[in-house]
Design goal:
Shape: elongated
Structural class: mainly alpha
Largest sheet: none
Radius of gyration: 26 Å
Strand content: under 5%
CATH architecture of the domain at 52-132: Orthogonal Bundle
CATH superfamily of the domain at 52-132: Flavocytochrome C3, Chain A
Number of strands: 0
Number of helices: 3
């Protein structure tokens, strides 16, 4: 009985080792979605080109659409690249629209010198404008 358990344990150990070697060999063939090696630097465009025309808002109080790509913008708990152009302190010199003053109010309505944490993730309300066909038929009519 002990011999069968020992043989089973050795067999399982050998299979795990072989599987680990196979995974390690495949790891060298993983390709990045960016098309370059993971440790290779990918430069970003310094200025974003605005689309020719801005789309009208479909309803009152709709957050404005973003008229440029945000694919390579870092927006996470550590950084928000939108603020490099749209923060009130730099928007004038960058020629970008300034954030609404509501973005500088905390939950209690107190005025802050920096963007409130509740408004930090721009893409939870704002999305890039895209001239694309709708995914499903839609009878939505914008408000007048």
């Amino acid at each position: 009985m002990k011999t069968i358990r020992l043989i089973s344990a050795l067999t399982i150990g050998a299979l795990v080792a072989i599987g680990g070697i196979a995974v390690a060999q495949q790891a060298g063939t993983v390709k990045s979605l960016r098309g370059v090696q993971v440790d290779e630097y990918v430069p970003l465009e310094s200025n974003h080109k605005q689309d020719e025309k801005r789309f009208p808002r479909a309803y009152r109080q709709q957050p404005p659409l973003i008229p440029h790509s945000i694919e390579q913008h870092q927006i996470d708990r550590n950084a928000n690249e939108c603020l490099a152009c749209h923060d009130w302190s730099v928007a004038g010199e960058r020629g970008a629209p300034t954030l609404s003053m509501t973005h500088y109010l905390d939950r209690d309505g107190n005025q802050l010198d920096q963007v409130a944490g509740t408004r930090w993730f721009c893409n939870q309300c704002h999305v890039p404008q895209v001239d694309a066909l709708p995914l499903v038929d839609n009878t939505f009519e914008p408000s007048k």
